[in-house]
What we know:
Helix content: 25-40%
Structural class: mainly alpha
Number of helices: 1
Oligomer: single chain
Low-confidence stretches: none
Mean pLDDT: 86
Largest sheet: none
Radius of gyration: 12 Å
Order of helices and strands: H
Strand content: under 5%
Distance between the termini: 10 Å
Amino acid sequence: MKNLILDLDGTLTFDKEGKDYIDKKLNTKVIEKLKEYKKGLFG
């Protein structure tokens, strides 16, 4: 079994002080790469 471990803070979203997590802008490049990993190596 392969595992991928990552820190979510400032990874799936762009960190912006004073904004709640739900209001932060998504880091779509990272999210798309994680989807690729799920389909391939880690799926």
